[in-house]
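Batch job 17 of 40 flagged for manual review because the log was empty.
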Amino acid sequence: MTLQADQDARTFDDAGVVVRRRLLSALDRAARRPITLVAAPTGYGKTTLLRQWAQEHPEALSFDGGRARPWEQVVCALREGRPVLVDDAHLAGWGSAFAAACGAAGPSASLVVASRVDPLVALHPDRLAGRVSEIRAEELAFSLGELSRVVARSGRRLDHAQAEAMHLETDGWPAGVRLTAMRSRDGLATDGAYSPSGSYLMAHVVADLDPRVRAFLLATAVPEEFDVALACRLSGRSDAYDVLGEITHSVGFVVRDGATGRLRYHPMLRHLLLSELEREPVARLHALHQIAGRWTFGRDQLEASAGHAVRAHDDDLAADVAVALACRSLGDDDWSALDALTSAVPAVFARDDERGRLLLTLRAARNDDSVGAAAALARTARRTSLDIPTHERVGTLTALCRGWLALGEGQGAAAQEWIAAADPAVDLGAGSPTAGLRSAWVRVYGALLVTDGRLDEVDAVRRYASRLARHAPCAGATAAEMTMWAAFAAGRPADAHKAAGEVERLSDGSPPRSVSLVRAWLDVERGSPAGVDPPQGQADQLPGMLPSPLLDLLAEHFRHRAVQPPRPAHEVVAECQRATTWLVARHTLLGAVTALLSAGATTTAVDAVQRVGTAHPRLETSPYLLWIALTDALRTGVREQLGPLLEQVDCAHDVPEDLRVRTLLAAAALAHRGDDATAASARLRPALESTAVHGWRRPWLALGPSAFDLLTAEHGRVGAHGDLVTRLLVELRKDREITDELVVALSTRELEILQYLPTSLDQGELCATLFISRNTLKTHLRAIYRKLGVESRREAVLKAQRVGLL
């Protein structure tokens, strides 16, 4: 038989297409086996690939499957030992002649078959024998780089984002990429059968389909992905499995997800089908979207379900989806999907059932409107029959909202009951509504523990929140904020400062208002300038873990602590009485006692402590009373109770650090006043250790002249905190009245160096201690001598002692 191969005399013209070297190499590797199947739907560049490969292998013969008796000619060519390429092989059929051609193929005479359909049965024996290599649509699809090169040939250059968007739209389908580029270049229609891609698919895929298969495609194109059960419901056919198999085999453009087993159509085919579906009756469209919406809702595909609810005009489904989105948003802090749904279907807020009430409550809470949230929850809601997941979500989230509001009003017992009733059972599934609910529960429960003073339970909940962050990212920020508030409650600035930084890092540049308030506390305790005014929070700044009413009370307290001069005693006591929780009561009481002791109102301070202790039984009042007793003894000069008071200081345990350091300083000052240097130093050194860690300044300033005397005495001793003592002396002297003998005041650095002049350190040792060079030290010494009006180190020491600088 004379071979009539389709030898194209033209050389390959690369002006309109790109040479994809990765595919040519893949075909080279595949052709080492006797048979290579290149199977993909129309438009995937199978013909172009075979033509390019044949140009690089001139010994190969090419045949068109549409010609008469092609398999017989293929057998003859293979027997002559030449590789053979057969394009559109599906047109030639898969009968005995094809089997003969497969049998004639061998390693030195390979058979390359390009087809729109997969000859499953015909190739089965050869597949089992390991004689077949395959190249599928996934490999034939354009990569991002190939897509950009093809579009560039049409005169348009894409940046990376545009290339990714086009790749997502076309799924890398070569014909789709070319047609989309043509559409953009020539300003052609973008939708429906009149667009370039739509007309191509209509002509090559849809037009020749059986009407029943076409109707099946239209119905099942409504969801982005589906399974066989959903396909049966959408199409009304019980044989959906067989129809899908027929479409996959004969049409292609059907992709199966290997992980879930779900199916989806190629995005451009689905886009065409959806545009064709718009011609169907409105009632049918609504019914299909409703079916797809419920199916996606049951699988937590909430964005897809929201879209179907909008297109189906199904307010009931939209309300269910809105509740689920709200739960999920509590876990990932992404409210965009919920906002889009409620903007499209605002009727969900107007519903008179539990869902409408809950959504109104959440909207108010997101706007930091506690009054509006409480008013929404107070509405009477009609009881409706909800599906089980929605019923559980509504019940749990409503209970959490009630507990949150009760916590803000200082009703700890009621908050405890609501929070216990809202404990979700499981927290499985990254990004799921249940994980979001669990994250919200951890947040509210952690707030309850902190505000109620149950700090020993906080760590376990914090560790759980850290683990939960894998499923709900907000739980990670909650864990950090819980650490911050626990440190705030325990009076530990260093730990609070570190945790506040972590909260800011996890908040993506939008930290909650609670961070600003804790930093205001740090400024107060570390002696920032007067006038510290904790921010009230901007309109878009959420309160954080604690409800806004509690933050308002704390912010008011820190503003008052920064007021100079101090407020009247009755205002200070009144503020203590307004404290609604243990956390607020502890900090307001500390500030109140500080103010009252400064004013000499010891009796009023004791009365305030007893009143707060009665209102908040969990608050331990004995450390406050001990601090008051020490300060009163220091003020009055009564020394008879010195021994018992110092013993109580030594026996005190589990005292908040900010209160402990104040008690230690008062005890040290009292011992120093009693000429017991050893006892004074024994209490001062733990206070110095705490100051080195936490940066205390306010407790030292509140102690007044006694702090200066203590540090001056300690400065003469050899200890581990000599530098800290020097810095504290320098800072305290700024607030101490100095004689007017000095014409020019010494700088902070000069005051610090002055403290070392009475010591035995020489200039080299001073440089090493201060981490400065010898020249820098000499410059500072000349300035000190000039300002003091002296000429030597000894004279500088004597003059500084006389004017109160030493």
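Reviewer: the log was empty due to a logging misconfiguration, but the result itself is present. The longest helix spans residues 388-408. Unflagging and moving on to job 18.
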